[in-house]
TrEMBL record:
<dbReference type="GO" id="GO:0099560">
    <property type="term" value="P:synaptic membrane adhesion"/>
</dbReference>
<dbReference type="InterPro" id="IPR000242">
    <property type="entry name" value="PTP_cat"/>
</dbReference>
<dbReference type="GO" id="GO:0004725">
    <property type="term" value="F:protein tyrosine phosphatase activity"/>
</dbReference>
<protein>
    <recommendedName>
        <fullName>Tyrosine-protein phosphatase domain-containing protein</fullName>
    </recommendedName>
</protein>
<feature type="domain" description="Tyrosine-protein phosphatase">
    <location>
        <begin position="28"/>
        <end position="143"/>
    </location>
</feature>
<dbReference type="InterPro" id="IPR050348">
    <property type="entry name" value="Protein-Tyr_Phosphatase"/>
</dbReference>
<dbReference type="InterPro" id="IPR029021">
    <property type="entry name" value="Prot-tyrosine_phosphatase-like"/>
</dbReference>
<dbReference type="Pfam" id="PF00102">
    <property type="entry name" value="Y_phosphatase"/>
</dbReference>
Length: 143
């Protein structure tokens, strides 16, 4: 079921989500891929050659206007980059941080960001692996 401009009335939301979840959530993945990635913002820092290996996906980038800028590490020119952006809350600007699941080479940057930004809660929105694809490196200690 499609709605104009991809809007979904509240009363149709449950049916729409159930439809998207069929067939191992392939429709959900397809709809997600159809979302405009936000061409109105620039992502020059994300696209620099020295930062590309820090992006899990080429089309999921940190926008320049709201990206988290890490404190530089002396002697490492690209040490201020992490694929993460501030998100505004209902009552406060920059209340949240959205970031990708860390890569093996960005786990230290992830924890540095948590420390520098004084984050007290981390909410993971993905599993380590989904449909046989690695989505996130384990960034917490194994028990």
């Amino acid at each position: 079921m499609r709605y104009p401009s991809h809007s979904i009335p509240v009363e149709g939301m449950i049916d729409h989500v159930n439809l998207l979840k069929k067939d191992n959530s392939r429709l959900m993945a397809s709809e997600f891929e159809s979302i405009d990635p936000g061409g109105q913002f620039t992502w020059e820092v994300s696209s620099r050659p020295e930062n590309r290996s820090k992006n899990r996906y080429a089309n999921v980038v940190a926008y320049d206007h709201s990206r988290i800028v890490l404190q530089k590490i002396d002697g490492i020119s690209d040490s201020d980059y992490i694929n993460a952006n501030y998100l505004d809350g209902y009552h406060r600007k920059n209340m949240y941080i959205a970031t990708q699941g860390p890569l093996p080479n960005t786990i230290a940057d992830f924890w540095r960001m948590v420390w520098e930004q004084r984050s007290s809660i981390i909410v993971a929105m993905t599993r380590l692996e989904e449909r046989t694809r690695i989505k996130c490196e384990q960034y917490w200690p194994a028990v």
